[in-house]
Amino acid sequence: ERGMAVKVFVFDAARCNGCHGCQIACKDEHWNNEWLPYALPQPDTGHFWCKCEESVQGQVPKVKMSYQVRMCMHCDKCAVLDVAGDAAYRREDGLVIIDPARAAGRRDLVDACPHGAVYWNAELELPQKCTGCAHLVDEGEVPRCVDFCQTDALRWGEREEFGDLLET
Questions:
Q1: Is the torsion defined by CA of 139, 140, 141, 142 positive or negative?
Q2: Which residue from 43, 11, 12 is spatially nearest to 26, judged by alpha carbons?
Q3: pLDDT at 18 over 90
Q4: Residue 110, SS3?
Q5: Residue 2 in this model has a pLDDT that exceeds 50
Q6: 110 Cβ contact partners less than 8 Å away, ≥ 6 residues apart
Q7: What span, in angstroms and rounded, lies between the C-alpha atoms of 47 and 40?
Q8: For residue 126, what is the enclosing H or E element?
Q9: What are the Cα distances from residue 24, in Å, to 10, 78, 80, 99, 103?
Q10: Cα maximum dimension of the chain
Q11: Which of 15, 16, 120, 167 has the lowest CB atom count within 10 Å?
Q12: Mean pLDDT for the chain?
């Protein structure tokens, strides 16, 4: 068992208004910024480490919009960790990190994730994904996407805090 409480992301679709703030905040935090030892800069296009997807049901005048945040959920059973060797690891708080120094050239890590949460940075020849803003978490802050979410649709905290909100 881990010494530190495991943290999780929780998304509540009923609270999301589709502002895309989480997506913009993530891009702002990681584009053109190096957060070693956790990440090298995210490219300006093509990567969505946090993405708000819109779904439309019905037709005018009865239209229902819904939103879903797609990002690495740092899975308990992480397929990337199964193949990465020392190129990726899980921190005590539960965040799965692809080590930018050790994962260079490891395009296979992109295909290892069944959820499409790992992206290939062609310029750096590096697989990349959400780090959970580990650089901020280390400072006692929450991930930037969570901090920016004005409706509390996206939250971060200890697994026990969310009780019955989490699927088993």
A1: positive
A2: 43
A3: yes
A4: helix
A5: no
A6: 118, 119, 120, 127
A7: 13
A8: strand 126-128
A9: 18, 26, 26, 24, 26
A10: 54
A11: 167
A12: 93
CA–CA distance, 65 with 56 (Å, rounded to integer): 5
Cα separation, 26 vs 31, whole angstroms? 8
Write down the pLDDT at residue 167: 61
User: Per residue in 75-120, pLDDT tens?
Assistant: 999 999 999 999 999 999 999 999 999 999 999 999 999 999 999 9
Q: Are 22 and 149 in contact (CB under 8 A)?
A: yes
- How wide is the angle at C-alpha 160 spanned by C-alphas 20 and 150, nearest 5°? 20
Spatial CB neighbours of 67, under 8 Å, sequence gap ≥ 6: 13, 16, 17, 18, 52, 53, 54, 55, 153
- Which helix (H) or strand (E) segment is 154 a member of? strand 154-158
Tokens 């979410």 identify what position? 149
| Cα separation, 37 vs 89, whole angstroms | 12
pTM: 0.89
